[in-house]
């Protein structure tokens, strides 16, 4: 979109007049990216219908139905068993600073595990939410967050800790998923003696629950952008079946890894400009035995992993640029950027959503190549609208500058 220098100057003046209230990377688009933008849009509650919740029952009530709600989590909410929601639409969940969803119950009772699950749901945004669970325990329990047959979901700047089964899993036909600036980690020692047999089940993210999960054929299309698999993660970062999964500018730094990315049946992974920081086995192939042998993986431009393409079978390689444009930034910047900004680091204000930083590195010195406008919920606009706008400027030096402006 082209705009005049006069208009651009006016927008920049408006931006300067708005207080900078949050840290955000210059490479943060502050909107869904990748697969979440293909064939549809993710608007969530569109920052409408603000509701503040402080208990599990309030959270469940606010999530019911298809009407637009913008839900703000305040304080730590104790979860005593999986909050399982179905047929949810048009919801945004923000975590206010210092908030968290917490399930600290350690039990062999599967029903007491897990935090939040969505089934048959769509158009959901989850931002700046911290999930804290009881610690890895191999009982085939519930996850911190699970998506089952969900579409157009954006999970951004969330912090996932100590999932009993997984930190964040996705399965059974879920599709068009954007995950950006999220942090996955385990702060607690794993629990031994689970019925599944593993005494260390710190397996973070399972994408596709089984090789026979036919509902996921051609789906599970997901983009992970600037995510961080931090200390404590052992495996599944993620482990993928079926999905065309793009991992861009992600950081792997756990000293405990057995492997990072797992390629399973009909996995088609594209791993680009990521950093594998002194970890074991950037990737491992699971699709090597029996009748479930097909898999693809491409690694390019990473630090700590050589460029390569490998596959079994005749499936064509997944190339993200065939479907959407998302270039990311140089791998040499990943470690500093992701460590500084990934996780629940946003400044969220009740009724206002995310307040973003104004002065971003590179914005003043480089020429502006393009300007794109978004609503506060992340919906792309054809032109600025009255009220709050998020302006994303792509600069000639390769950086992306994000600013908040108010149009009267």
TrEMBL record:
It comes from the Bacteria. SUPFAM superfamilies: Pectin lyase-like (SSF51126). SMART domains: Amb_all. GO terms for biological process: polysaccharide catabolic process. InterPro entries: Pec_lyase, Pectin_lyas_fold, Pectin_lyase_fold/virulence, PEL. One of its GO terms (cellular component) is extracellular region. Keywords: Carbohydrate metabolism, Lyase, Polysaccharide degradation, Secreted, Signal. Residues 46-282 form the Pectate lyase domain. Residues 1-22 form the signal peptide. Pfam families: Pectate_lyase_4. The keyword Signal applies. Belongs to the polysaccharide lyase 1 family. PANTHER family: PECTATE LYASE 18-RELATED, PECTATE LYASE 21-RELATED. This is Chromophore lyase.
């Amino acid at each position: 979109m082209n705009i005049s220098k006069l208009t651009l100057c006016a927008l920049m003046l408006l931006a300067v007049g708005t207080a900078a209230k949050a840290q955000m990377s210059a490479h943060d688009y502050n909107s869904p990216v990748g697969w979440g933008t293909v064939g549809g849009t993710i608007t969530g509650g569109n920052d409408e219908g603000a509701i503040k919740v402080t208990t599990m029952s309030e959270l469940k009530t606010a999530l019911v139905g298809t009407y637009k709600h913008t839900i703000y989590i305040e304080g730590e909410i104790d979860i005593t068993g999986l909050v399982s929601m179905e047929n949810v639409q048009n919801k945004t969940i923000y975590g206010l600073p210092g908030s968290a969803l917490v399930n600290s119950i350690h039990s062999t009772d599967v029903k007491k595990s897990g935090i939040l699950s969505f089934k048959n749901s769509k158009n959901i945004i989850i931002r700046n939410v911290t999930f804290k669970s009881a610690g890895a325990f191999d009982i085939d329990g519930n996850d911190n967050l699970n998506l089952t047959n969900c579409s157009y979901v954006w999970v951004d700047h969330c912090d996932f800790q100590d999932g009993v089964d997984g930190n964040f899993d996705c399965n059974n036909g879920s599709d068009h998923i954007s995950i950006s600036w999220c942090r996955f980690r385990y702060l607690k020692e794993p629990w031994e003696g689970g019925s599944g047999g593993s005494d260390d089940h710190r397996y973070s993210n399972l994408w596709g629950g089984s090789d026979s999960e036919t509902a996921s054929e051609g789906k599970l299309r997901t983009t992970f952008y600037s995510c961080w698999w931090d200390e404590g993660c052992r495996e599944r970062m993620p482990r993928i079946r079926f999905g065309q999964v793009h991992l861009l500018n992600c950081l792997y730094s756990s000293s405990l890894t057995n492997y990072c990315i797992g390629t399973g049946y009909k996995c088609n992974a594209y791993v680009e400009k990521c950093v594998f920081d002194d970890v074991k086995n950037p990737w491992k192939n699971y699709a090597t035995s029996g009748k479930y042998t097909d898999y693809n993986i491409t690694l390019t431009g990473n630090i700590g992993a050589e460029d390569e393409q490998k596959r079994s079978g005749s499936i064509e390689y997944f190339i993200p640029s065939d479907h959407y444009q998302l270039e990311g930034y140089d791998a040499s910047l990943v470690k500093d950027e992701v460590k500084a900004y990934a996780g629940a680091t946003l400044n969220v204000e009740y009724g206002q959503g995310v307040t973003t930083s104004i002065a971003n590195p590179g914005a003043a010195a480089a020429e502006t190549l393009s300007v794109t406008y978004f609503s506060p919920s992340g919906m792309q606009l054809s032109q600025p609208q009255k009220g709050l706008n998020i302006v994303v400027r792509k600069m000639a030096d390769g950086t992306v500058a994000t600013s908040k402006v108010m149009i009267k």
